[in-house]
Amino acid sequence: MPDRFLWGVATSAFQLEGSPNADWTAWDERLRSKPNVTNHYSLYKKDLKFLKELGVNAYRFSLEWSRIQPEEDQWDTEAVRHYQDIVDILHGEGIEPMLTLHHFTHPRWFLEKYPWHEDRSVKKFLVYVEKVVSTLRGVRYWITINEPYVLLLGGYLDGCMPPGLREPASAVKALKNMLLCHGEAYDILHSLNQGAEVGVAHNMAAIAPCRFWHPLDRALSRIAMFFYNHSLIDAFLNGTLRVRFPFKKAIEMEIPVKGKVDFMGVNYYTRIHLRFNPFRKMGVELRHQDEDGHGLTDTGWEVHPTGLERVLRYASKLKVPIIITENGIATRDDQKKIKFIKAHVDALERCLENGIDVRGYFYWSLIDHYEWLRGFDTRFGLYTVDFTTFERKRTSAATYYSYLINKNLKS
Ligand code: FCB
Q1: How many angstroms does the Cα of residue 399 sit away from the middle of ligand 1?
Q2: Is the pLDDT of residue 1 over 80?
Q3: N vs C: which end of the chain shows fewer Cβ within 10 Å?
Q4: Where does ligand 1 bind, in terms of residues with CB under 6 Å?
Q5: pTM greater than 0.85 (yes/no)
């Protein structure tokens, strides 16, 4: 492992804390009965002790924008102080903070008045960025936006996430605006924070045709691979974003983001099989098949560790360090969780042996949490949470992960 390799765990604020002013709170009625989610907003000091127990040297977490700016003209300084406290506690323990500015959720006013497909969104987001970057102290690693393409697919194509649209034309506008925000936020961060390392967290999936012999399954896989995995990386490489949906003409846009990533964050979970189905939107049917015999996870996803090598190889085209900003499994079976971690860290080691410049690995997630489309049933945590009593319990996967980290940090 390279020196100063970041061994961490990742979380997002909303999934642990909830927030009364977030778009998702109104969106998902399951949150009505559990608005505090894991009660992490109150219990954060206890939860942060788990980091020490695990022995991680880095922690990725996010700001809940709707707590910081609950109304368009209202800033909650207490909320900013809360996140500053987390940063300070981490430094006290020798743990490197990695901070995400935007992880899926928005203040309700933003989504209502300035949704991403409106150009006015850019300025509003940057006001928030400028405010927090000029206030918070002690953060070197920043992620501007978590998984822009997931937000896009969920919020603008499938409609399963706020704002719940199914409009490819709006999706393209939203993507353009999010990337413009990334580029501007990159500049703001560098002008206000000497030595900042700025990236995005890009969800990359292994993608394969359902029926290898079927030309349309293969064509769909190629298009999806290009759009979902590659187009963002290519935009950072050459400043041109090429968007192509199945059976539609490709769209090309100049976006000033060329070179504007100091590291590439990759979130990797699974492989997706694609099948042409004329009765589905854009003719695409997604499937998860257990081809490697590792079993599916509780989210129904295939466990496919070698896919990590493939996506990292593509990400390495950018020639900037790569950080695996999320990788994890939803399961109540600790042995399965341990095997998942081992298999993916083995894959990461093979990447390093092959000269791919990976600088960190963050397991998703520290504790169980609210999962966007699935509510409270999925168990990604190294520590379990009882969502009624808020009791936390260490899993044997936590013990395994800390053994692994220890072994690597010492060698
Ligand atoms: C990723 C999200 C993260 C979490 C995991 C399971 O796509 O970034 O918030 O929900 O999936």
Answers
A1: 23
A2: no
A3: C
A4: 12, 15, 146-147, 150, 203, 267, 326, 364, 371-372, 380
A5: yes
Residue 325: which of 154, 203, 175, 152 has the closest Cα?
A: 203
> What pLDDT does 247 receive?
83
In 215-292 the beta strands, taken as DSSP E runs, fall at 240-243, 251-254, 264-276, 284-287
Helix (H/G/I), strand (E/B), else coil: 31:
helix
Q: Where are the alpha helices (DSSP H) in 259-328?
A: 306-315
Tell me the per-residue pLDDT of 295-352, one tens digit each, with 9 for 90 and over. Answer: 999 999 999 999 999 999 999 999 999 999 999 999 999 999 999 999 999 999 999 9
The helix (run of H) or strand (run of E) holding residue 383 is: strand 383-385
- State the closest ligand 1 atom to the C-alpha of 146, by its place in the atom list counted from 1: 8
239-248 residue pLDDT tens: 999 998 888 8
pLDDT confidence of residue 342: 98
Which is nearest to 131 in space by CA: 77, 169, 179, 210?
A: 77
Distance of CA 54 to CAs 2, 16, 48, 383, Å? 20, 19, 10, 10
Q: Which of ligand 1's atoms lies nearest the C-alpha of 369? A: 10
What is the dihedral sign for C-alpha 12, 16, 17, 21? positive
Q: What is the pLDDT of residue 55?
A: 98
| Cβ atoms of 142 and 83 closer than 8 Å | no
Domains of the chain as residue ranges with CATH: 6-203+302-405 (3.20.20.80)
Which residue among 160, 362, 372 is best mutated to probe the pocket of ligand 1, counting the most ligand atoms within 8 A of its Cβ? 372
